[in-house]
Design goal:
Layout lengths: L5 E3 L9 H5 L4 E4 L4 E4 L7 H10 L5 E3 L1
Antiparallel strand pairs: 1-4, 2-3
Length: 64
């Protein structure tokens, strides 16, 4: 469980999906908008959230 703040900047997200594959319980894909969204970041551990942030090709994920 994590009490980190997790955000996705949907203005730069390209919907590549690395975050959803890395931490599917923390992120979801909005098919209508074509972007990732934050689902339940507390369901993923800090390590996987950090990995999702690092693997985002546009830097749209912020974990603080």
């Amino acid at each position: 469980m994590s009490d980190l703040e997790v955000r996705v900047d949907t203005s730069i997200c390209i919907g590549f999906g690395n975050c959803v594959r890395t931490a599917p319980e923390a992120f979801a894909f909005d098919d209508e908008q074509g972007v990732a969204t934050v689902a339940d970041p507390a369901a993923a551990d800090e390590e996987r959230l950090a990995l999702a942030e690092q693997e985002c090709p546009t830097g749209a994920i912020y974990v603080e």
